[in-house]
Design goal:
By secondary structure, this protein is an alpha+beta fold. It contains three helices and seven strands.
Length: 169
């Protein structure tokens, strides 16, 4: 029993050490490179996808996950879109943008079609669109007492409230 416990402990320690090691930088080979071998890092692909998909109207947040497969690149996206948008149309735009970015702009091959997980999120209080910014207007603040008021008539000398003039001046 003691020998079995030591073997299990040894295996568990090895697994913990393997989990704590930093992952190696992964590169994916570019299929359409002429005249040599070119590799692109996975982090570069993630940055490019984040930039391309985030530029689409209605997309609030995007988190791409890219992994290298035997047949090419596998892409999974977690996307938050604004509520009220047509989900099938928006999903089609996202899938096409990912395909163009990976295959045409970066020269990589897709192992399978991208998986997109969409979540609709209500618009925040401040709506930012491509053309203008709308903000909720708040009522004007009440003036502080005594700042723009007239001095009191019955106040002792030297204890009058300061008068800065009226707000119209």
């Amino acid at each position: 029993g003691v020998i079995l416990a030591l073997v299990v402990d040894f295996i568990l320690v090895l697994l913990i050490i393997m989990e704590m090691r930093p992952p190696k930088v992964k590169f994916i080979r570019v299929e359409k490179a002429a005249g040599g071998e070119v590799q692109v890092s996975v982090a570069s692909i993630v940055d490019r996808l984040r930039h391309e998909v985030d530029a689409l109207p209605g997309v609030l947040k995007v988190s791409p996950h890219v992994s290298g497969r035997r047949g090419g690149v596998a892409v999974k996206l977690d996307v938050d879109i604004a509520a009220g948008l047509d989900v099938p149309v928006q999903a089609g735009q996202i899938v096409e943008t990912v395909r163009q970015a990976v295959e045409e702009k970066m020269g990589l091959k897709m192992a399978k079609s991208p998986k997109v997980d969409l979540r609709t999120v209500p618009y925040p209080q401040r709506i930012v669109s491509n053309t203008h910014v709308e903000e909720k207007k708040r009522p004007p603040a009440e003036p502080l007492p005594g700042v723009f008021s007239e001095p009191k008539k019955n106040a002792p000398i030297g204890l009058e409230e300061p008068s800065f003039g009226s707000p119209e001046e």
